[in-house]
UniProtKB/TrEMBL annotation:
<feature type="domain" description="Ysc84 actin-binding">
    <location>
        <begin position="110"/>
        <end position="193"/>
    </location>
</feature>
<dbReference type="InterPro" id="IPR007461">
    <property type="entry name" value="Ysc84_actin-binding"/>
</dbReference>
<dbReference type="InterPro" id="IPR006311">
    <property type="entry name" value="TAT_signal"/>
</dbReference>
<dbReference type="Pfam" id="PF04366">
    <property type="entry name" value="Ysc84"/>
</dbReference>
<keyword id="KW-0732">Signal</keyword>
<feature type="signal peptide">
    <location>
        <begin position="1"/>
        <end position="26"/>
    </location>
</feature>
<protein>
    <recommendedName>
        <fullName>Ysc84 actin-binding domain-containing protein</fullName>
    </recommendedName>
</protein>
């Protein structure tokens, strides 16, 4: 009888911990006044955040500006929120720019398994370096990294320069958090879908 008490207590603690983590994550994603904003306000908010994220990317990697200038299209997700306890999720909204003009709005979602309690935010950039890569993306009905195309996440050398092999791929990606450019990151399994705004 006494043997079962520690097990029950551990099970209760685990359930409570999972519940608290769920509430913390829900607190990060619960609808806010922004979600009730008009479509115009949401677009303006995404555009403004995308411009700020581009500025941070150019600071972190000045050479990225050349690469973005050469791209046929650039998908910018300025604020991808990720949070997990045992099973994680990421979500964010962004804008596709073609020739410097806004060409549509998209959402991104991804999942992961592993212990990473807490919430984090990052910016994600997907550069379509060829017309073919851009057209396939724009004509897709839901697009998943790994299944529909490979995204080569840019490697930055010790000298701060972009790895030339990565930069020559048809689709190139950057991931940026508060600490700077993230190395060794995979976007595999990231789903991107067009949204009406």
């Amino acid at each position: 009888m006494f043997d079962s008490f520690p097990r029950l207590r551990r099970a209760g603690m685990a359930a409570a911990t999972i519940g608290v983590a769920g509430l913390l994550f829900a607190g990060c994603t619960t609808t806010s006044p922004k979600s009730a904003a008009s479509a115009t306000e949401q677009r303006q908010s995404i555009n403004s955040a995308a411009n700020a994220s581009l500025g941070k990317l150019y600071e972190a990697s000045p050479q990225s500006k050349e690469l973005i200038a050469r791209a046929k299209g650039v998908l910018i997700f300025p604020d991808v929120l990720s949070g997990s306890f045992f099973i994680g999720a990421e979500h964010g909204k962004g804008v596709l720019r073609v020739g410097g003009a806004n060409a549509g709005y998209y959402s991104t979602t991804a999942g992961s398994i592993g212990f990473q309690a807490g919430a984090q935010s990052k910016a994600m950039f997907v550069l379509f370096m060829t017309d073919d890569a851009l057209n396939k993306f724009r004509n897709s009905n839901g697009w998943t990294v790994g299944a529909d195309a490979t995204v080569a996440v840019v490697n930055i050398g010790a000298n701060g320069r972009i790895d030339t092999n990565t930069a020559q791929q048809p689709i190139v990606g950057f991931v940026l958090n508060n600490g700077g450019l993230m190395a060794g990151v995979s976007l595999e399994g990231t789903k991107i879908s067009k949204i009406d705004m």
